[in-house]
Amino acid sequence: SYYIYSSSPLGSFYRSDDMRTWTESGRLFDALPEWAYEELVTPDHIGAPDIAWYDGQWVLYYQSHIGGTCNAGTGVATNKTLDPEDPNYEWVDHGLLLRSTPLFEGIDIICGQDEAYYNAIDAHLFIDVDGKPWMVFGSTIGGLLLAEIDPKTFAPTQHPRDFVTLAARDLLQPDPIIEGPYIIHRNGWYYLFLSHNRCCQGENTKYKILVGRSRDLKGPYVDRDGVSLMEDGGTVLIEREGTMIGTGHADVYSEGGYDYLVHHAYDRERDYESILNIRRMDWDEEGWPSACKADES
Fold first, then answer.
1. How many whole angstroms separate alpha carbon 236 and alpha carbon 217?
2. Distance CA 245, CA 239 (A)
3. Domain spanning 1-162 has what CATH number?
4. Spatial contact of 45 and 31, defined as CB atoms under 8 Å apart
5. Most-buried pick from 91, 119, 154, 283 (CB within 10 A)?
6. What is the pLDDT of residues 20-51, one digit of tens each?
7. Which phi and psi (to 5°) does residue 148 adopt?
8. Taking the model in full, what pTM does it have?
9. How confident is the model at residue 131 (pLDDT cuts 50, 70, 90)?
10. On the CB side of 4, how many CA atoms lie within 13 Å of its CA?
11. Under CATH, to which class is 168-297 assigned?
12. Taking all residues of the chain, what is their mean pLDDT, rounded to a whole number?
């Protein structure tokens, strides 16, 4: 079976036998974690779950934040299996790993900790070619960041000022949003997938998925034209297709020699209902990916 975890009040998950027909099959938690209430006071969701297999267990990063702010926290949970019918099935929450709080009184969109600017959301567990785990996370304030982590607790081991910035945008432009980092390694390259622009603005939505690459995990990452992802660069992978808009926040799943781009979208002909998209990716001779149309995947 295939499983997908999604943002929802308690972290919904879905199961499929063919990656086309999905059935909602449960929730990550029965109640929001205690740390979310202690830190955020009025939490209302489990957001942007990211799941990876590491050291004999499934590791799931998740976040919760106050809407419209960067007042946020990232936690982690583990499980031995994803099959809820398995007797070993149990999500164990290990609590808060990373916190971002407003740095200036009365301003809730400039956050971080310990004199470092960042947003503690959209964490992704990346395992490098040597089997070392890393946390990739962040959004507009501070950009997309890479942190060394403890392989047992999955928490950052560095001081926040030592996090490595992989991608960033000019904050003075009308829509400076950057978020949803995801890294894969392929043929000697590290590929950073990311999203630009606001997600959910109805017909005005310009959310899109971009990609850049580097020979080194820590960068620098550049797009096909050589523009740095630190300077608003990124090769567009998908922006809109037919009735699908708001195409963003991608993961990559690999199986049977194929890579699939898994991402969010809205269908403007279905009252902007949130729709899961899974698209096969092809790679050109220069090593750059392209996303197939939905009906070709």
1. 21
2. 7
3. 2.115.10.20
4. no
5. 119
6. 999 999 999 999 999 999 999 999 999 999 99
7. -70, 140
8. 0.97
9. very high
10. 25
11. mainly beta
12. 96
Instruction: Give 220's contacts (C-beta < 8 A, 6+ positions apart).
Output: 214, 228, 229, 230
Cα–Cα dist 211/16, whole Å: 28
Residues 6+ apart with CB under 8 A from 43: 32, 36, 37, 64, 66
Pairing of strands 92-104, 107-113: antiparallel
Length of the chain counted residue by residue: 297
DSSP 139-178: ETTTEEEEEEB-TTT--B-S-GGGPEEEE---TTSS---E
Tokens 């942190």 locate to 147
Chain segment 64-88, per-residue pLDDT in tens: 999 999 999 999 999 999 999 999 9
Query: What is the DSSP code (8-state) at residue 294?
Result: G
Contact predicate 62/28, CB 8 Å: yes
All CATH 2.115.10.20 domain ranges in the chain, comma separated: 1-162, 168-297
Residue 17: Cβ within 10 Å count: 10
How many C-beta atoms lie closer than 10 Å to residue 4's C-beta?
A: 20
CB 47 within 8 A of CB 12: no
| Statement: residue 297 has pLDDT above 80 | no
Distance (Å, rounded) from C-alpha 196 to C-alpha 174? 12
